[in-house]
Amino acid sequence: MANNFKMIAKTLYGFEAILAKELLDLGAMDIKQGNRMVSFVGDKGFMYKANLCLRTAIKILKPYESFRVNSEQELYDNIKRLPWEDFLDVNGSLAIDSAVHSDIFTHSQYVALKTKDAIVDRFRDRYGKRPDVDLDFPDLRINIHIEKNYCNVSLDSSGDSLHKRGYRGATNIAPINEVLAAGMLLLSGWQGQCDFLDPMCGSGTIPIEAAMIACNIPPNINRKEFAFEKWKDWDEDLFEKIEESAMKKIRDFNFKIKGYDKAPSAVMKARENVKNANLSDFIQIEQKNFFESEKENKGYLHMLFNPPYGERLEIDVEEFYAKIGDTLKQNYHGTHAWFIATNFDAIKSVGLRASRKIKLFNGPLEGRLLKYVIYEGSKKKSKQDN
Protein backbone atom coordinates (compact mmCIF):
# COMPACT_ATOMS: atom_id res chain seq x y z
CA MET A 1 0.00 0.00 0.00
CA ALA A 2 2.92 2.33 0.68
CA ASN A 3 3.65 2.52 -3.06
CA ASN A 4 0.14 3.63 -3.96
CA PHE A 5 -0.60 7.23 -4.90
CA LYS A 6 -3.46 9.34 -6.16
CA MET A 7 -3.92 9.89 -9.89
CA ILE A 8 -6.34 11.86 -12.04
CA ALA A 9 -7.77 10.59 -15.32
CA LYS A 10 -9.05 13.45 -17.47
CA THR A 11 -11.90 12.79 -19.87
CA LEU A 12 -14.58 14.42 -22.02
CA TYR A 13 -17.85 15.82 -20.72
CA GLY A 14 -20.41 13.07 -20.12
CA PHE A 15 -17.91 10.21 -19.86
CA GLU A 16 -17.12 10.49 -16.14
CA ALA A 17 -19.32 7.56 -15.10
CA ILE A 18 -18.10 5.18 -17.80
CA LEU A 19 -14.47 6.12 -17.07
CA ALA A 20 -15.10 5.38 -13.38
CA LYS A 21 -16.53 1.98 -14.43
CA GLU A 22 -13.46 1.32 -16.58
CA LEU A 23 -11.19 2.15 -13.63
CA LEU A 24 -13.18 -0.11 -11.31
CA ASP A 25 -12.95 -2.99 -13.81
CA LEU A 26 -9.17 -2.46 -14.09
CA GLY A 27 -8.78 -2.62 -10.29
CA ALA A 28 -8.37 1.03 -9.24
CA MET A 29 -9.07 2.07 -5.65
CA ASP A 30 -10.77 5.10 -4.09
CA ILE A 31 -12.48 6.15 -7.33
CA LYS A 32 -14.15 9.59 -7.26
CA GLN A 33 -15.91 11.30 -10.16
CA GLY A 34 -15.43 14.99 -10.85
CA ASN A 35 -16.04 17.37 -13.75
CA ARG A 36 -14.41 15.87 -16.86
CA MET A 37 -12.14 13.86 -14.57
CA VAL A 38 -12.03 10.87 -12.24
CA SER A 39 -9.53 10.55 -9.41
CA PHE A 40 -8.30 7.16 -8.23
CA VAL A 41 -5.52 5.42 -6.34
CA GLY A 42 -3.03 2.84 -7.62
CA ASP A 43 0.67 2.04 -7.90
CA LYS A 44 3.18 2.63 -10.69
CA GLY A 45 2.14 -0.53 -12.52
CA PHE A 46 -1.47 0.61 -12.41
CA MET A 47 -0.45 3.97 -13.88
CA TYR A 48 1.08 2.07 -16.80
CA LYS A 49 -2.06 -0.09 -17.11
CA ALA A 50 -4.38 2.95 -17.01
CA ASN A 51 -2.53 4.60 -19.89
CA LEU A 52 -2.53 1.39 -21.90
CA CYS A 53 -6.08 0.17 -21.23
CA LEU A 54 -8.47 3.06 -20.53
CA ARG A 55 -10.65 3.83 -23.54
CA THR A 56 -12.25 7.07 -22.30
CA ALA A 57 -9.26 8.78 -20.64
CA ILE A 58 -7.45 11.68 -22.33
CA LYS A 59 -4.61 11.99 -19.79
CA ILE A 60 -3.38 10.27 -16.65
CA LEU A 61 -1.93 12.86 -14.29
CA LYS A 62 0.12 12.17 -11.16
CA PRO A 63 -0.54 15.02 -8.69
CA TYR A 64 2.69 16.36 -7.23
CA GLU A 65 2.01 19.49 -5.19
CA SER A 66 -0.82 21.89 -4.33
CA PHE A 67 -0.67 25.38 -2.86
CA ARG A 68 -2.55 28.68 -2.65
CA VAL A 69 -1.45 31.48 -4.96
CA ASN A 70 -2.51 35.11 -4.78
CA SER A 71 0.05 36.63 -7.15
CA GLU A 72 2.45 35.85 -9.99
CA GLN A 73 5.35 36.05 -7.54
CA GLU A 74 3.75 33.45 -5.25
CA LEU A 75 3.31 31.13 -8.21
CA TYR A 76 6.94 31.60 -9.22
CA ASP A 77 8.27 31.11 -5.67
CA ASN A 78 6.19 28.00 -4.98
CA ILE A 79 7.19 26.37 -8.25
CA LYS A 80 10.87 27.24 -7.80
CA ARG A 81 11.11 25.70 -4.31
CA LEU A 82 10.09 22.24 -5.61
CA PRO A 83 12.98 19.76 -6.20
CA TRP A 84 12.58 19.41 -9.97
CA GLU A 85 16.02 17.83 -10.21
CA ASP A 86 14.41 14.66 -8.76
CA PHE A 87 12.49 14.29 -12.04
CA LEU A 88 14.59 16.01 -14.66
CA ASP A 89 18.27 16.18 -15.62
CA VAL A 90 19.83 19.56 -16.27
CA ASN A 91 20.46 18.47 -19.88
CA GLY A 92 16.89 17.27 -20.30
CA SER A 93 13.81 19.00 -21.69
CA LEU A 94 10.41 20.01 -20.36
CA ALA A 95 7.01 21.23 -21.47
CA ILE A 96 4.26 22.92 -19.47
CA ASP A 97 0.51 22.55 -20.04
CA SER A 98 -1.72 24.90 -18.09
CA ALA A 99 -5.40 25.58 -17.51
CA VAL A 100 -6.65 28.53 -15.45
CA HIS A 101 -10.06 29.48 -14.02
CA SER A 102 -9.12 32.45 -11.89
CA ASP A 103 -9.54 36.23 -11.52
CA ILE A 104 -5.87 36.52 -10.53
CA PHE A 105 -4.50 34.54 -13.47
CA THR A 106 -6.37 35.09 -16.71
CA HIS A 107 -3.99 33.73 -19.34
CA SER A 108 -2.94 30.07 -19.34
CA GLN A 109 0.07 30.67 -21.60
CA TYR A 110 1.42 33.26 -19.18
CA VAL A 111 1.05 30.82 -16.28
CA ALA A 112 2.96 28.21 -18.32
CA LEU A 113 5.71 30.78 -19.01
CA LYS A 114 6.05 31.75 -15.30
CA THR A 115 6.20 28.06 -14.35
CA LYS A 116 8.90 27.39 -16.93
CA ASP A 117 10.90 30.41 -15.72
CA ALA A 118 10.76 29.20 -12.11
CA ILE A 119 11.96 25.70 -12.99
CA VAL A 120 14.81 26.73 -15.28
CA ASP A 121 15.91 29.43 -12.81
CA ARG A 122 16.17 26.76 -10.10
CA PHE A 123 18.44 24.67 -12.34
CA ARG A 124 20.48 27.69 -13.40
CA ASP A 125 21.01 28.78 -9.77
CA ARG A 126 22.13 25.28 -8.75
CA TYR A 127 24.03 24.01 -11.78
CA GLY A 128 24.81 27.05 -13.93
CA LYS A 129 22.83 25.36 -16.73
CA ARG A 130 19.15 24.89 -17.53
CA PRO A 131 16.95 22.32 -19.27
CA ASP A 132 15.52 23.08 -22.70
CA VAL A 133 11.88 23.52 -23.62
CA ASP A 134 10.59 20.88 -26.04
CA LEU A 135 6.87 21.13 -26.70
CA ASP A 136 6.71 17.94 -28.80
CA PHE A 137 8.95 15.34 -27.14
CA PRO A 138 9.94 16.57 -23.66
CA ASP A 139 11.57 14.39 -21.02
CA LEU A 140 9.09 15.78 -18.49
CA ARG A 141 5.62 17.17 -19.18
CA ILE A 142 4.13 19.20 -16.31
CA ASN A 143 0.48 20.11 -15.87
CA ILE A 144 -0.57 23.28 -14.00
CA HIS A 145 -4.20 23.77 -13.06
CA ILE A 146 -5.26 26.96 -11.25
CA GLU A 147 -8.81 27.18 -9.88
CA LYS A 148 -9.46 30.61 -8.31
CA ASN A 149 -6.41 30.94 -6.02
CA TYR A 150 -5.51 27.26 -5.74
CA CYS A 151 -2.75 25.73 -7.86
CA ASN A 152 -2.39 22.01 -8.56
CA VAL A 153 0.90 20.82 -10.03
CA SER A 154 0.88 17.38 -11.67
CA LEU A 155 3.23 15.23 -13.71
CA ASP A 156 1.68 14.16 -17.01
CA SER A 157 2.29 10.42 -17.39
CA SER A 158 0.64 10.20 -20.83
CA GLY A 159 2.32 12.84 -22.99
CA ASP A 160 0.26 13.24 -26.14
CA SER A 161 -3.48 12.95 -25.51
CA LEU A 162 -4.52 9.32 -25.17
CA HIS A 163 -6.98 9.72 -28.05
CA LYS A 164 -3.90 9.45 -30.27
CA ARG A 165 -3.96 5.66 -30.36
CA GLY A 166 -1.25 5.26 -32.97
CA TYR A 167 -3.33 3.52 -35.66
CA ARG A 168 -4.66 6.53 -37.53
CA GLY A 169 -2.21 7.46 -40.24
CA ALA A 170 -4.82 8.78 -42.66
CA THR A 171 -7.81 10.96 -41.87
CA ASN A 172 -10.70 12.48 -43.74
CA ILE A 173 -11.97 16.07 -43.46
CA ALA A 174 -13.12 15.87 -39.83
CA PRO A 175 -12.19 12.60 -38.13
CA ILE A 176 -13.94 11.89 -34.85
CA ASN A 177 -11.81 11.85 -31.70
CA GLU A 178 -11.01 8.24 -30.73
CA VAL A 179 -11.94 8.81 -27.07
CA LEU A 180 -15.28 10.31 -28.15
CA ALA A 181 -15.87 7.29 -30.42
CA ALA A 182 -15.04 4.79 -27.67
CA GLY A 183 -17.14 6.66 -25.10
CA MET A 184 -20.18 6.77 -27.38
CA LEU A 185 -19.84 3.04 -28.04
CA LEU A 186 -19.69 2.26 -24.33
CA LEU A 187 -22.63 4.58 -23.59
CA SER A 188 -24.60 2.75 -26.28
CA GLY A 189 -24.02 -0.55 -24.49
CA TRP A 190 -21.75 -1.99 -27.18
CA GLN A 191 -19.68 -4.94 -25.93
CA GLY A 192 -19.47 -7.08 -29.09
CA GLN A 193 -22.77 -8.90 -28.61
CA CYS A 194 -23.99 -8.79 -32.24
CA ASP A 195 -23.26 -7.43 -35.72
CA PHE A 196 -22.19 -3.78 -35.86
CA LEU A 197 -22.45 -1.12 -38.57
CA ASP A 198 -21.15 2.42 -38.97
CA PRO A 199 -22.93 3.56 -42.16
CA MET A 200 -20.92 6.80 -42.49
CA CYS A 201 -17.53 5.62 -41.28
CA GLY A 202 -15.19 8.28 -42.68
CA SER A 203 -11.65 7.25 -41.77
CA GLY A 204 -12.87 4.21 -39.79
CA THR A 205 -12.43 5.37 -36.20
CA ILE A 206 -15.78 4.10 -34.87
CA PRO A 207 -15.50 0.57 -36.39
CA ILE A 208 -11.91 0.31 -35.11
CA GLU A 209 -12.89 1.34 -31.57
CA ALA A 210 -15.90 -1.03 -31.79
CA ALA A 211 -13.61 -3.94 -32.72
CA MET A 212 -11.17 -3.16 -29.92
CA ILE A 213 -14.02 -3.14 -27.40
CA ALA A 214 -15.51 -6.35 -28.82
CA CYS A 215 -12.15 -8.15 -28.64
CA ASN A 216 -11.04 -6.45 -25.39
CA ILE A 217 -7.90 -5.16 -27.10
CA PRO A 218 -6.05 -2.45 -25.10
CA PRO A 219 -6.88 0.80 -26.97
CA ASN A 220 -3.34 2.17 -26.81
CA ILE A 221 -1.48 -1.01 -27.74
CA ASN A 222 -0.42 0.59 -31.06
CA ARG A 223 0.83 3.79 -29.46
CA LYS A 224 4.50 4.58 -29.96
CA GLU A 225 5.25 6.25 -26.62
CA PHE A 226 3.95 7.35 -23.24
CA ALA A 227 5.50 10.21 -21.26
CA PHE A 228 6.33 7.95 -18.30
CA GLU A 229 8.86 6.09 -20.46
CA LYS A 230 11.17 9.10 -20.05
CA TRP A 231 10.75 9.35 -16.29
CA LYS A 232 13.72 8.55 -14.05
CA ASP A 233 11.82 5.67 -12.40
CA TRP A 234 10.73 4.08 -15.71
CA ASP A 235 10.50 0.30 -15.25
CA GLU A 236 10.51 -1.35 -18.67
CA ASP A 237 10.21 -4.89 -17.28
CA LEU A 238 7.14 -3.92 -15.27
CA PHE A 239 5.53 -2.27 -18.30
CA GLU A 240 6.16 -5.35 -20.44
CA LYS A 241 4.47 -7.52 -17.80
CA ILE A 242 1.48 -5.18 -17.71
CA GLU A 243 1.29 -5.22 -21.51
CA GLU A 244 1.59 -9.02 -21.65
CA SER A 245 -1.14 -9.44 -19.04
CA ALA A 246 -3.49 -7.09 -20.94
CA MET A 247 -2.88 -8.94 -24.21
CA LYS A 248 -3.81 -12.25 -22.57
CA LYS A 249 -7.29 -10.86 -21.87
CA ILE A 250 -8.07 -10.38 -25.58
CA ARG A 251 -11.18 -12.36 -26.54
CA ASP A 252 -12.56 -13.74 -29.78
CA PHE A 253 -15.36 -12.04 -31.70
CA ASN A 254 -17.83 -14.02 -33.80
CA PHE A 255 -19.99 -11.33 -35.41
CA LYS A 256 -19.40 -8.84 -38.24
CA ILE A 257 -18.25 -5.23 -37.95
CA LYS A 258 -18.79 -3.14 -41.07
CA GLY A 259 -18.21 0.43 -42.11
CA TYR A 260 -19.78 2.13 -45.14
CA ASP A 261 -18.80 5.36 -46.83
CA LYS A 262 -19.82 6.63 -50.25
CA ALA A 263 -16.52 8.47 -50.83
CA PRO A 264 -13.76 6.30 -52.36
CA SER A 265 -11.07 8.39 -50.63
CA ALA A 266 -12.66 7.78 -47.20
CA VAL A 267 -12.93 4.04 -47.88
CA MET A 268 -9.25 3.89 -48.81
CA LYS A 269 -8.23 5.80 -45.66
CA ALA A 270 -10.47 3.70 -43.42
CA ARG A 271 -9.02 0.45 -44.79
CA GLU A 272 -5.51 1.77 -44.22
CA ASN A 273 -6.32 2.66 -40.61
CA VAL A 274 -7.96 -0.73 -40.01
CA LYS A 275 -4.78 -2.35 -41.32
CA ASN A 276 -2.63 -0.13 -39.08
CA ALA A 277 -4.70 -1.28 -36.09
CA ASN A 278 -4.17 -4.95 -37.09
CA LEU A 279 -7.94 -5.43 -37.26
CA SER A 280 -8.46 -6.42 -40.90
CA ASP A 281 -9.77 -9.84 -39.79
CA PHE A 282 -12.60 -8.20 -37.84
CA ILE A 283 -13.66 -5.14 -39.87
CA GLN A 284 -14.97 -4.87 -43.40
CA ILE A 285 -15.04 -1.41 -45.03
CA GLU A 286 -17.28 -1.01 -48.10
CA GLN A 287 -17.92 1.81 -50.52
CA LYS A 288 -21.67 2.23 -50.14
CA ASN A 289 -24.21 5.02 -49.83
CA PHE A 290 -26.18 4.43 -46.62
CA PHE A 291 -29.34 5.86 -48.21
CA GLU A 292 -29.20 3.11 -50.86
CA SER A 293 -28.40 0.31 -48.39
CA GLU A 294 -30.44 -2.11 -46.34
CA LYS A 295 -29.86 -4.34 -43.36
CA GLU A 296 -27.96 -7.45 -44.43
CA ASN A 297 -28.29 -9.70 -41.39
CA LYS A 298 -31.42 -11.32 -39.99
CA GLY A 299 -30.52 -10.77 -36.32
CA TYR A 300 -30.26 -7.68 -34.19
CA LEU A 301 -27.92 -4.95 -35.51
CA HIS A 302 -26.10 -2.37 -33.41
CA MET A 303 -25.47 0.82 -35.38
CA LEU A 304 -23.49 3.89 -34.30
CA PHE A 305 -22.29 6.74 -36.48
CA ASN A 306 -21.26 10.37 -36.70
CA PRO A 307 -23.26 11.93 -39.55
CA PRO A 308 -21.98 15.09 -41.27
CA TYR A 309 -23.33 18.42 -40.13
CA GLY A 310 -23.36 21.96 -41.47
CA GLU A 311 -19.91 22.92 -40.18
CA ARG A 312 -18.30 19.85 -41.72
CA LEU A 313 -19.81 19.44 -45.18
CA GLU A 314 -21.96 21.58 -47.40
CA ILE A 315 -25.28 19.72 -47.31
CA ASP A 316 -28.94 20.49 -46.80
CA VAL A 317 -28.88 19.37 -43.20
CA GLU A 318 -32.63 19.01 -42.66
CA GLU A 319 -33.08 17.02 -45.86
CA PHE A 320 -30.07 14.86 -44.98
CA TYR A 321 -31.42 14.01 -41.51
CA ALA A 322 -34.86 13.27 -42.95
CA LYS A 323 -33.19 10.73 -45.26
CA ILE A 324 -31.44 9.16 -42.26
CA GLY A 325 -34.82 8.66 -40.59
CA ASP A 326 -36.43 7.29 -43.76
CA THR A 327 -33.58 4.83 -44.42
CA LEU A 328 -33.71 3.53 -40.85
CA LYS A 329 -37.53 3.14 -40.92
CA GLN A 330 -37.68 1.44 -44.31
CA ASN A 331 -34.49 -0.63 -44.50
CA TYR A 332 -33.19 -1.31 -40.99
CA HIS A 333 -35.84 -3.13 -38.97
CA GLY A 334 -34.40 -4.83 -35.88
CA THR A 335 -31.74 -2.18 -35.33
CA HIS A 336 -30.68 -0.02 -32.43
CA ALA A 337 -29.31 3.06 -34.19
CA TRP A 338 -27.21 5.60 -32.30
CA PHE A 339 -25.71 8.77 -33.70
CA ILE A 340 -24.34 12.08 -32.46
CA ALA A 341 -25.90 15.32 -33.71
CA THR A 342 -24.92 18.93 -33.04
CA ASN A 343 -27.66 20.57 -35.11
CA PHE A 344 -30.71 20.49 -32.86
CA ASP A 345 -33.07 21.72 -35.57
CA ALA A 346 -31.94 18.93 -37.88
CA ILE A 347 -32.77 16.30 -35.22
CA LYS A 348 -36.46 17.18 -35.64
CA SER A 349 -36.21 16.21 -39.30
CA VAL A 350 -35.33 12.59 -38.52
CA GLY A 351 -39.04 11.83 -38.07
CA LEU A 352 -38.42 9.26 -35.33
CA ARG A 353 -38.70 9.59 -31.58
CA ALA A 354 -35.36 9.13 -29.83
CA SER A 355 -35.61 6.74 -26.89
CA ARG A 356 -32.48 8.28 -25.33
CA LYS A 357 -30.72 11.64 -25.59
CA ILE A 358 -27.30 12.04 -23.93
CA LYS A 359 -25.55 15.41 -23.82
CA LEU A 360 -22.00 15.29 -25.21
CA PHE A 361 -19.55 17.60 -26.94
CA ASN A 362 -17.98 16.92 -30.34
CA GLY A 363 -14.97 19.21 -30.04
CA PRO A 364 -16.36 22.63 -29.08
CA LEU A 365 -19.85 21.80 -30.38
CA GLU A 366 -22.54 20.74 -27.93
CA GLY A 367 -24.40 17.72 -29.21
CA ARG A 368 -26.68 14.83 -28.33
CA LEU A 369 -26.02 11.14 -28.61
CA LEU A 370 -29.38 9.84 -29.81
CA LYS A 371 -30.80 6.33 -29.71
CA TYR A 372 -33.49 5.15 -32.14
CA VAL A 373 -35.01 1.70 -31.79
CA ILE A 374 -36.19 0.39 -35.17
CA TYR A 375 -38.47 -2.55 -34.40
CA GLU A 376 -39.03 -5.68 -36.45
CA GLY A 377 -42.47 -5.00 -37.92
CA SER A 378 -44.70 -2.87 -35.72
CA LYS A 379 -43.71 -1.75 -32.22
CA LYS A 380 -46.86 -3.41 -30.84
CA LYS A 381 -46.07 -6.73 -32.54
CA SER A 382 -42.46 -6.58 -31.33
CA LYS A 383 -43.64 -6.27 -27.73
CA GLN A 384 -46.01 -9.21 -28.18
CA ASP A 385 -43.20 -11.36 -29.55
CA ASN A 386 -40.89 -10.61 -26.60
TrEMBL record:
SMART domains listed in its UniProt record: THUMP
Keywords: Methyltransferase, RNA-binding, Transferase
PANTHER family referenced in this protein's UniProt entry, alphabetically: RIBOSOMAL RNA LARGE SUBUNIT METHYLTRANSFERASE K/L, RIBOSOMAL RNA LARGE SUBUNIT METHYLTRANSFERASE K_L
Location of the THUMP domain: 46-157
Keyword Transmembrane belongs to the record: no
Entry-linked InterPro entries: RlmKL-like_Mtase (IPR000241), RlmKL-like_Mtase_CS (IPR053943), RlmL_1st (IPR054170), SAM-dependent_MTases_sf (IPR029063), THUMP_dom (IPR004114)
Organism: Gramella jeungdoensis
Protein name as annotated: THUMP domain-containing protein
